[in-house]
Structures are given as structure tokens and as C-alpha cells.
Amino acid sequence: MPLTVRHRATGLVAGLLALALGLTACGGGDSDTGSGGATRAVVDATGATVRVPARPQRVVALTETDLDSALALGVQPVGVTNGRFAKDVPGYLKSKLTGRYTVVGDLGTPVLEKVAEARPDLILAGFIPDGKVIEQLKKITPATVLTTKMAEDWKATFTRTADILGKQAEGRDVLAAYDKHVADVKGKLGGNAGAAISIVRWNATGPSYMLKDAFSSLVVRDLGFERPKGQLTPAGFSPSDALSLENLKILDGDWMFLGTLNPDAAAALKDAEKIPAFKDLPVVRAGHVVNVDGAIWTSRGGPAAASTVLDDIAKALAK
After folding, report:
1. Range of 305's domain?
2. Can you give the CATH number for the domain in which 295 is found?
3. Among 188, 245, 271, 299, which is 20 to 30 Å from 156 by CA?
4. Which Pfam family, an example, fits this chain (predicted)?
5. Does a structural domain hold residue 4?
6. What is the pTM assigned to this prediction?
7. Residue 24 in contact with residue 115, Cβ under 8 Å?
């Protein structure tokens, strides 16, 4: 999701920016960059070179993917955003936040003055297409880095983030642990190996399926599963457009992993479960629908989210 910035008052924002910049310039305490203010050059998701602290001490993560990646690398951010369509940090990540942190806004709409109040020396900014927003964030710290390309797999984003944080070795270890987890689950699938897995996000306006290169789709692919033929197009990294009742057959598969993101969507799903077009799907009749956390399965994520997807699949399908 592209990010925008909300701000309440120009004077307040300017004052907080001045305060944040002043604290950074003074150094010392939590705002110190670590190794005497030393910096190094990294390449962001756009190919631009950005100088970042050699040892960042106060990291702000503006997306759930940035937060997931930072935590997996042993970094406790001082600023985070709420989850997608939520008013809190995603539960699977909140439990891993052990340090003091500030919520600096919602996913997609960080509040500029709250970001400044967190006094970051590094901002992991996800994907922001608006150069003016980047300009504003860079006034808080020049070390504002776009970590994410919209059209790339989660491992590439994670590897880039590990480099930005100076945690390359730790990043390799995390991906090696993921590969081992994949192998462990794959070895327990028995007769479910190679099954066609339908991945569905139920919205208030109806169901969508995750396109073949979306986050959870890639985890499913790593396990050697197929996707239902109707879910192989169009290509992409996001959910499909909402389906009409006439097209619910596209959701069929050997197994369906189904999630929602908000109460309205959950209510819509409850109503849909009474509709013959849904109840009569072979996957539903077989009892092969698995309810999962839509914030993990149908959004972007990092190592913790990928591990949860693997655990959900193992719980449902391992023999």
C-alpha cells in the first residue's frame, strides 16, 4: 500500500521537525547513531543511494513488512504504525515488541509530527510513490529509505532491509531458518502434497483471491502446492478484484485458507456462508475451509508472517 502523510498544523509540524533535527545534531543518549555518527551508503528499492547510520539506534518502521523484518533481525523499532485496516499493531508482531515504542499513525497514513517525536535516526519507509512525502520525512532524518518494491517477493525486500540495517549475516540466518521450516512442513504433508490451495480474502464487498505472486502465494509455492487454475490470472502481487456470486467457483480448490481484515468483512462472510453458491463449493462441502488471520495471509509480510503461514498449513494439512 502506498503511504501518505497526515499533519495537523503547519506550525506544530515545523516546530517538531526543528526539535527532532536539533536533538539529532546534539547527539548523545538515544539519538546517537552509535559509532560516532558514522554512516554508510545503501541502495534503496528505487536504486537510489542513501546514507544511513552504521549502527542505527532509533528505527521507525512505517509498514508491517518493515516491522516484521526489523524484529526478525533483532531490531526493536521506536516507532511503528497500526496494521492494515486496524487500530493497533498486528497481533503477531505486537507480541515481539519488547522495547518502548510509539505508534506514529496508521498503515498508509503516518502522522508527521508523531514520526518526528520518535526522534528516528533511520526510517524504514516501505513504498512511498510521492516524492513530497519522502522530502518531508527526510527533514526528520535524511536516512529515510524506501525498502519495498511493489512487484517483488518478500525475500528480496527482507534481504534489502537487512542490508539497510547492517544485519546481512543475520538476514542470511533468518532465510536459512525459513528454508528449514519449509522442508520440515513439506516432509509432513503426506497425501496433501501438491494439493491446489485457494487463498481467499473476504471483504465487505465480497471475496477476492490472492494473485499468484502475492506474499502467501509464494509461501504456498515454496511448499510445492498448486493453485486453482482460475487463480493463476491475472499476474500480480495483490488481491484480485472482488468476485460476484456468479464467479465464486473460482474460489474452489482442494483446500481453502480464508481470512478477513475487519469486522465488516467478517459479517459479510457470515452472510455468505448462508448462500448456496458458497455452501455448494466442493471445498466447502468437504470441510476443507481453514480460517486464518487475514492480516498475515492476505497482506504483505516478512519472516514472522511467513513462519505463521507455514504453521497454519502444517496444522491443517500435515499427516
Report:
1. 178-317
2. 3.40.50.1980
3. 188
4. Peripla_BP_2
5. no
6. 0.88
7. no
